Amino acid sequence: MKNSNTAVLLAGGIGSRMGIKNKVKQLLSLRGETILEKTISVFDKTKIFERIIVTLPGHLVKSAGKYIDSKKFFTPIIFIEGGKTRQESSYNTLKKIKELGGTKIVIIHDAVRPFINKDIIEDSVKSAEKYGASIVAVPAIDTLIETSGKFVKQILDRTKIFYTQTPQTFRYSLILKAHETAIKNNITAATDDAQLILNMKKPVAIVQGTYFNIKITNPIDYELAKIVSKKIKF
Length: 234
What we know:
The strands form three sheets. A seven-stranded mixed β-sheet has the order 5-4-1-6-10-7-11, with helices on both faces. Helix 4 packs across helix 6 and helix 6 crosses helix 7. By secondary structure, it is of the alpha/beta class. The chain contains eight helices and eleven strands.
């Protein structure tokens, strides 16, 4: 393998929170390209991945070429069908990687976070190589509370709270085992890959993120993304 790393972009959502019809959020336009193309481009430009696997809703897999010009990227792009849940989508990609002969490191990213950058991607891979697992996070700005019904139970110590983002990066053998263990334990709707690692009592390192690394899930996010795209080079 030239680069024994695989990037996974989860783009299997149908965008129900975006409130749009006949189009998924990852194919919305952002400065002349789709959000998905923007995200693929950032990972492609690192040139440290053997392949980029993209999950899509089933009805878009065969027609992906209409929306994404794979030929313009240095890294081979592979489109597969996502699952009914995030956990299933992630596991589908891990099984696909196994079919392709495996990999050393797998980095899993929300396709609708196009403002990720090269430095964070490379730092994430290095951290996973060293510790086995890493997640990108930024220190919390807001004070968070724990509730009990309609009342405040306690105010959390903000200095110990981080907002998690993606990518989340793992040694392939470790995250594959984590998913297989979760399934054996009837855990099928986990919304976070790193949680499956923690369930096995394994450490997960933190990689410093950026507040620009927003996830575009609703109309407000999309409008904010249009502004951000004019302010930063990506």
